[in-house]
Amino acid sequence: MIFTLHDGQEVDLQRVVDVSSIRDEGLDPTSISLSRIAFYIRVKSGGTIIVHKNYHFSDWAEAKKALEVERKTLIEKLSECSSKSVS
Prior knowledge:
elongated; 6 strands; alpha+beta
């Protein structure tokens, strides 16, 4: 089953090994004034998919909430996918 992230990346849920917690990574190295908040999806090939949002310090709560919603949706889809494959 394919899951599409907010940035358009597609993830094959059957290949997902782990989903990290959400972490504030501090200043984004590609920006002067933005910080980055992210979570990571580890897949069977050993690779990692980074799901992140850049934010200005005053928008931290909004960025975190958006990532929490996306992570929760991903985990729910993972549960559905694993329950279908067990049945």
